Amino acid sequence: MWPGSVRIPMRHNPSVMPAADSARSGEAKKILIASGASAGHLYPALALAENLKNKQPSWEIAFVTCRRAEIEKCIESSGYKVFIISICPFSRTARRFLISLYRLVKSFLETFLIIESFRPDVVVGFGSYVSFPVILESALFKKPTVIHEQNVSLGLSNKVLSLCVDKVALSFADERHRKDAPVDSRKFVFTGNPLRRELVKKDQEESRAFFGLAKEFTILVLGGSQGSERINAEFKKTVDILSAQGRDFQFIHLCGKKDYSSLKKDYSCIKIKYRLFDFLTRMDFAYSLADLVVCRAGAGSITELAFFGKAAILIPYPYAGAHQLENAGILKKKEAALVIEEKELEGPKLAELILKLMNSADERAQLEKRIADFANPQATDRLAELVLNEAMS
User: Which pTM value belongs to this model?
Assistant: First the structure.
């Protein structure tokens, strides 16, 4: 549970009705979920869909997203129907802006056809530009609507959509949502951020065997779902510094596709144990083995760090509305993580912080304890209950 938040009883809060009530209807419902193309949007959406399917096996669930092969494949492999709309991010250049505007208009038409053909009983949006036409048009058609915000502050799309939706589900129990949003605060319900079911704590011995690594201090480095060129470059310098000092450590580095080949070549000559991946599905083993995590400050990463209770150095992505800076600020304020802003990120600085935590088991333990206070294992259930209640309203 988020520090300073008030727990909402799952079976007694009037805003979140029991799923058992929905079962009395006997009528199979349809749920439409709009998700952006990043892991931070998609994984919570898939976690919700799985929970809803377990609660109501006869209900039909479908997704709306943009054209991106790996996202479509991920959703379809989970067993859900996928609708594609043409929307794309807006660009500042005149020509691309006009293309983006055309695709937005086209997406509204596509959304109309999706709603007409699928006829959802409730529509759920997970933020990003993909959710905008889907949720707005659903609200205009008087469909029950729920949006979920993963970050501390509402993103632009969710802030606009909060004017017309029925409920706004929050990942952070932070009052700035209510202060900044131009709507009645009673729309807001703190649920937490859904966690993927496949993320479970593993035994360290089993995790070491999975990666073929030794019993040494292990650093897990994550650059976000797309990889981060800056984090990749500066961590390589950090490895050189720590290696030159003769430090005993090993690392697992998820670098993304773009830098994989160059890093594979750079790391080929180092003498310490490491594992390099462009993408890794078994993050449960990676988190379970890690003594320290270096990563972005996306809501998904913070949710996973809290669940596994891992000491972390956060390097928030400074763009996209600076949401990650706000997320990291919450943890920094609670002394639950160390934070380096990207403009200050350099190999020696990162090496200094890593050494500080390598040399102090007590400080790592304090970080682990404080970040674990942010864990909310009931988040997926709470969001599912909210959606089920709206579907039955």
Answer: 0.86
User: Among the residues of the chain, which ranges form H helices?
Assistant: 19-23, 39-55, 69-77, 94-118, 128-140, 156-161, 176-180, 204-211, 229-244, 260-267, 283-289, 299-308, 323-333, 347-358, 361-372, 379-391
Measuring CA to CA, which residue among 251, 290, 255 is closest to residue 270?
Answer: 251
Structure tokens at 128: 């990003």
Pairing of strands 338-339, 122-125: unpaired
- What's the burial of 245, exposed, middle or buried (CB within 10 Å: 0-12/13-18/19+)? exposed
Name the token pair of 130: 């993909």
Kindly report, residue by residue over 198-224, the tens digit of the pLDDT.
899 999 999 999 999 999 999 999 986
Contact 278, 260 (CB under 8 A): yes
Contact between residue 305 and residue 371 where contact means Cβ atoms under 8 Å apart: yes
- The class (CATH top level) of 19-195+377-391 is alpha beta
Residues 6+ apart with CB under 8 A from 73: none
Every domain of the chain and the residues it spans: 19-195+377-391, 204-372
Question: Do 19-195+377-391 and 204-372 show the same overall fold?
Answer: yes
Domain made up of 204-372: CATH architecture: 3-Layer(aba) Sandwich (3.40)
Average pLDDT, integer, range 50-65: 96
**Cα angle for residues 54, 60, 62 (degrees, 5° grid):** 105
Residue 195 makes CB contacts below 8 A (sequence gap 6+) with: 44, 47, 303, 304, 307, 377, 379, 380
| Structure confidence at residue 131 as a pLDDT band (50, 70, 90) | very high
